[in-house]
Write a structure and sequence with these properties.
This protein is mainly beta. Helix content is about 5%, strand content about 45%.
């Protein structure tokens, strides 16, 4: 946030790959309980060097007995509309990514290989979308349904849902790129899959003084 990858389709985009909030050191704890925490990031002189916009971003993570919920709340403190793109980068641990697949994407337009805009290359015909070991899995589904299921070794493991987020990204580095990521040891690319909700194919537009709220939940099956 406020930019997904190299997408610059939002008005006045920051033109920074993946934005800047994920690496910001300015997050503070807004509130905290036994099972949740809300973090706050407010625009200041430093953020305006990257993106000359005024905003307040609250990110909340809540734990349930068999679930985790993530919520984003962005307030536009400008006198004109605010546009942005982004996604949550939620990664899920697994025994082997080759045994994982995603159900619930059939009939959705998608891109195979993510560029700097959504192209709508094809329509998904598979009931279950697998992760491929040899090559990188990099798929972007636009205007997709709000619930998908992550399976592993033929069993349903997680029900993933989203609210006010139009897209899903399905990703794993694969053997081709797995050794090139600094925080992954040799072969560790096999131990995770990324199935993340996003707001990428079209920018979110928030009116002056208004607030946008979106959420994502993972529930163990």
């Amino acid at each position: 946030w406020p930019q997904f990858g190299t997408f610059e389709n939002a008005a006045d985009s920051c033109k920074l790959k993946h934005g800047f909030v994920r690496t910001s050191s300015k997050w503070t704890v807004l509130r905290q309980s036994e099972d949740s925490v809300s973090l706050l990031l407010k625009s200041d002189d430093e953020t305006r060097k990257s993106w000359n916009k005024d905003f307040e971003f609250v990110y909340t993570v809540s734990l349930g007995s068999s679930s985790v919920r993530m919520e984003m709340e962005v307030r536009n403190d400008n006198s004109s509309p605010l546009e942005f793109t982004g996604c949550l980068h939620s990664y899920w641990c697994c025994k082997s990514m080759e045994q994982c697949a995603v159900e619930g994407l059939k009939g959705i337009k998608f891109d195979k290989g993510i560029g700097d805009r959504f192209r709508g290359d094809a329509v998904e015909e598979r009931d279950s979308v697998p992760f491929v070991d040899a090559k990188e899995t990099q798929l972007l589904y636009a205007d997709a349904g709000d619930a998908v299921t992550l399976t592993e070794d033929g069993s349903r493991r997680l029900r993933l849902t989203k609210s006010n987020l139009p897209d899903w990204v399905v990703w794993n580095t694969g053997a081709e790129n797995g050794s090139g990521i600094k925080d992954l040891k040799e072969g560790e690319y096999k131990r995770y899959v990324c199935v993340e909700p996003g707001f990428t194919s079209r920018p979110v537009r928030v009116g002056a003084g208004a607030t946008w709220i979106a959420s994502h939940e993972a529930r163990v099956l």
